[in-house]
Amino acid sequence: MSRRQFDDYDAQEWREEHERADKERRKREAKKQRHHLDVGCNYATASSGCNQFGTSFPCPSTMPAPMVTAGDVVFIVVENWSNMSTTYSLDLGPAPAAQTGPPDGTITAAGPFCDTDAAFQMTAVDVGGTWSGTGVSPTGLFDPAVAGVGTHTITYSIGSAPCVGAGTTTVTVTLCTSCVMDGLTVAMTNCYVNPVGNLLQYDVDATLSFTDPPTTGTLTVIDCNGGSQTFNAPFTSPMVISFTGLPQTGTNCDFTATFSDDLACTITTGFMAPPPITAFSSFCNIGSGAVSGTIDFANAPNPGSLVVSITDGTTTIDTTLVMPLPSPQNWSVSGLDPSANPYTITYYFAGFQSCAQTTTINCGCSADGGTSTAGITGDGLNNYVLCDGDVLDIVNNGDHTDPDDFGAVEYPGGSGNFWPYAPEIWYLVYSCPPTPGLYPASDPCILNVIPAPVNDLNDQLSSWAAAFGLNTLYYTPITIYTVDGVSGSPLILLNCWDIGDLYQVDYLTPITNVVTPNCSNATLDVVLNGGYPAMFGGNYTASNLQINGAAATTQAFGNTTCGLGGTIQITGMQNGDMYSFTITDDNGCPITITGGPFVGMPTAVAGPDDSICALTYTMQAVASFGIGAWTGTGGAVFGTPGSATSTVTVPAAGSYTMTWTETSEPGCASTDDVVIW
After folding, report:
1. Which residue segment(s) compose the domain that 163 sits in?
2. What does the DSSP assignment read for 56-85?
């Protein structure tokens, strides 16, 4: 061995010795650090390519861990004596295989959150556990939107028995959604002249809609005139707020709504106040059919128009002033009925017709037909519906106004006769309601004009209805200027007359009846027509049945009511009965029906069957009423066929059938048979 080789050997031996000493030192220090808690030691007895720590040799291998307490330090020493470079992995098994003591489940406080906040990761002192509660996932992700507004309990659990930990906390979610004003609409509900102070005013309803309002505070709505209304929470959308007594100005009026606890949540809407008509005048010439005047206004809409509308009771005529125009303006209307009174004048700005103002003016003549009192004498129950024989009376109440006195007038037709003013009340007779404002002579329904008072009997020969061939007439009083002294005809001025109350009068026809006796079933059938049902429908009612002058006993009404063309039937009639009963319609119109004697069905009794040792036999029928007659079979011959006890002769011995027939009237007969042998 050379010197160099020796030196190299000494160095190698020194290094090996040093490494062994260093390993022993580290082992002793590791043992001290383990507090003498060695978990085990094992060496392979033979090299199999895998030296294991533990009691068995399969690769890989595990071993139980020692029990430790929190704060202990565990050293794991792996020695490799193979002098070969190797790799290995060392893993702690999952819980509960490797656990260093009870975990700490204390939850880190979180919140409060807005309901619009993003999801938030909850944390605890020791991680790796499971979360539960409203709005939180098992991994601890808390979503305010899922949880919703309110205070929620969150629970955290970690570890496995016996080493477990838990924690509980509360998380608050508050409503942070922004308030939004969705709309504010203003609509006029009334427009008028306030009689207190004669002020032009109007009312509105303001409809406010909003989303997510504050849950506290107040809501205030203000109009342009400084008027306000305040409401306390809670708030419900939509809200309708009424403002009254606002002044008509013709200018914009702003309405503003604001929440006190969210001043940014506000809205303003403009509303055009009605333009005021501040003054109005009108005048006319009596009987001219024309009216004119002036009108004052302020802040008229441009473009826009001002309308003056006049009605005479029948016709409406408008005049329109197109803006812009200065105030005041003149206006006029013509073509109205000169006899009508009063005229009604309405004036307003187009687009603001609900703010119309109205006045009246008397431009026609002063004639007024006044009122009348109408009545019926008789049986009729309904107003002015006359039964046959009822009397109509219509009397003027004396509250009419005569036409104006224009002096003596010539009767129409150029007769040259002038008659002085001598007003009266007469009555017009129409076939239909008169056309308002139309001069009577021009009305197509006019029938006649008659002196007052009206006194008319409902009679098929003498009534006004009979005279005109009608069942309904219309009566109304009319003011007469004078009466022609020669002809006696009334004069009605063209431009100065008036009618009063209108009465529709219905003239009923008489109730008619057709009585048909029926002897076969002992009844009377009464068919009814006319009266109230003939004009208006309805029923007839039968009552007060009398037989032979006294109340009926076995006889009775089969039915007591029927309609037009219907039948009332009386049952149980007997031969010789004299009858009487009353029929009344729905207007109370009565008739009494009498008759008799009733011809009943006779009862034929031929006698008993019999036998005789002869060819001649005396019949034994029992006569009732009516006319009797015998007939027989086999050549039987009756001595007196009309006698109940007639003899009968037969040609030879045998059995014969004899028939006794009694007839009270045609179609009303009874028979009975007897056998003689």
Report:
1. 113-174
2. --SSS---PPPP--TT----------SSS-
